[in-house]
Amino acid sequence: MIIFYCLHLYLDVEITLATSGAIGSTILGQDLAPQFDEPYLSNSLEEFWGRRWNLVVTSILRSTVYEPVCCISTPILGKKFGPLPGVFLTFVVSGLMHDKVVKKSTNNRWELNPWVSRVLTIGFLSSTAVWLLFPQIVRNEVDMKVLSEYDIMVEFCKNKLILLLGKPVRNPYAAQ
């Protein structure tokens, strides 16, 4: 169940961002930078956060850390020095979130095979999600709510398909 939820979450983010990017690109008439680039092919946590997932993280850090801290510190420190605490705290939070906490410095003395690195990266991200994210999902029964919504969606799609094919439609909400 957790594996399906991970796939659902990834595909949901991928489809939502791709759709909104296509709409924005069409409206603006310009190519927009992708929000992420195949994060499952990352060779390290640094690559995952820095080059494959970072655009989403950057916008989140800007709106949740940098801008609020700047709003608080600018009236106190002035326009020139007000953003400095925001920049500093953003880097601190980013460093805690990113691989600098868990990555050992190798000074480029050796590198792992890219496939081994990918497996280790995905393994770390998966184990972190299982440890921090999924207990709350199961405790709040979000997984069961998602399954019931999938059932409703499947019934809806079946009924629409039957309508298109011209066969009689059974009302799933009628009293049995």
Give the overall pLDDT as a whole number. 76
Unreliable stretches (pLDDT < 50, length at least 5) are none
> Strand percentage, roughly?
under 5%
Which class do the helix and strand fractions yield? mainly alpha
Helix content: over 70%
The major sheet is characterized as:
none
Rg measurement, Å: 22 Å
Global geometry: extended
* Order of helix and strand elements from N to C terminus: HHHHHHH
Distance between the termini: 30 Å
Family: Belongs to the wax synthase family.
Domain Wax synthase: 34-100
Pathway: Secondary metabolite biosynthesis
Pfam family, one: MBOAT_2
Could you write a compact summary of the structure shown?
This protein has helices spanning 2-28, 45-52, 54-81, 83-97, 114-132, 134-139, 142-165. By secondary structure, it is mostly helical. Residues 34-100 form the Wax synthase domain.
